[in-house]
Amino acid sequence: MAAPLKLDVVIVGAGLAGIATAFRMGHDGHRVRVVDDREQSERGCTGAHIPPNATKILTDWGFKKDVESSGNPLSRGTFYSMDTGELIGRQTWREEVMRELGANQHYMHYQDLYTMLYKAAVNIGVNIRFGKRVVNVETDLERPRVTLADRTILEADLIIGADGPNSFVRRTLFGDGPVNFEGHTLFTGVIPMELIKKDTELSNLCRSDRAEWPIWIDSSRHSEGALVRNETEFALHVFYPNDELSAADDSCWEGKPVPGRPPNTIDPKLHRLVDMCPEMHRQKLIIRQGPEEWTDDSGKIILIGQAAHPIHPCWVLSCSVHLEDAETLGTLLSRITDLDQLPGLLEGFQEVGGRRARYIRDISWQEIVGPLWLSPGPARNMRDEALRKADDDSDWDDAMMRKQFDGFYAALGYNARDAADDWWTTWGLLRERSKSVYLDEILDNFTPFGITMEEAVHSHGA
């Protein structure tokens, strides 16, 4: 919906969070300008999960047909041993469960997702400038502003820092927290399907009619892949423990992808897929502590996306959290009627988004990858037996579907718009009413001539 008050907004960073937020706010009528120090072509070149919580947002934004045409629907995970390639079992996402979650799961090429949002933002008038480096951010002024390397100064009502895990905006305002290695390296690549189709065994792994998501699992490692770009390419991700990489690989890449391939110690079929990749990149997973606060005392700047709450790339929630930030912030700011409301609404964004970010950081990552990385032993045996049983459709009953729904709901059933609306209904309106009551009290006791309104009326009558 159109915001009652149209804000002048500058977004630093044109990654997924920045572009999605630019579109969401531009759609509500705000004037939005985006600057980014990278060029437009320097974007992700791998696959992107679009889980139900992200599909709902994109559908609400009008991209349902785009997601369905560009993305590959996934309805079943097929699990293989990453060591031997042996089929372990399958997990089918029941239609009844997905209906309750409100949307289906898809898989897209990251560049297709990004380009879709970028074009939509430009079409509604968002101004996006690439190759523009920010060198200063100032919020202790009547209007906050950013200064670019070419000395251009951009003033705004609101500055949004969406400039990634190494955020300049965050460092300028809050400094930087500690950085540690998570313990794994991510390898990514995209394979032309014309190469895979020449290998009968691999071609069966990547059949579009099955809507399958092949996943290879082993001790402290896993790999996954899915069709993208109208089934013409196959995106491949490999997560591998750092302590099993060669000494030559043991360098700090500052979280940036560099050329590299996983070692030849995996299932031969999976390794053939790796060999088919024209190019692959590697990236050490980093645990970077986000700032405690996403806004400063001015109430005129906010951090979003990786700048506020860094997240590992290429897993189920990596893209959806950026879309959720855009929807949460957009929903809250669609309520603004006066600039005096801005600090409170930004606090609301941190309250809603921070709660979600803590869940993803502290719980969801381990809930999702933990079972995939089990070492040999009773826990792994129980997991494998559960996957074999889940492959038998005849055993499913209401209790099993409820169990699957409960397992998915917290991570994949989250609704960013509902969460923002709930905050507004519970706290936002309360703040506005309290301000209104306070103003009424001031007016009731306002005595510009030393007498109250009631005294003046009686005096006039006398």
From TrEMBL:
Residues 7-220 form the FAD-binding domain. The keyword Oxidoreductase applies. Keywords: FAD, Flavoprotein, Monooxygenase, Oxidoreductase. The keyword Oxidoreductase applies. InterPro entries: FAD-bd, FAD-dep_Monooxygenase_BioMet, FAD/NAD-bd_sf. One of its GO terms (molecular function) is monooxygenase activity. Belongs to the paxM FAD-dependent monooxygenase family. This is FAD/NAD(P)-binding domain-containing protein. It comes from Coniophora puteana (strain RWD-64-598).
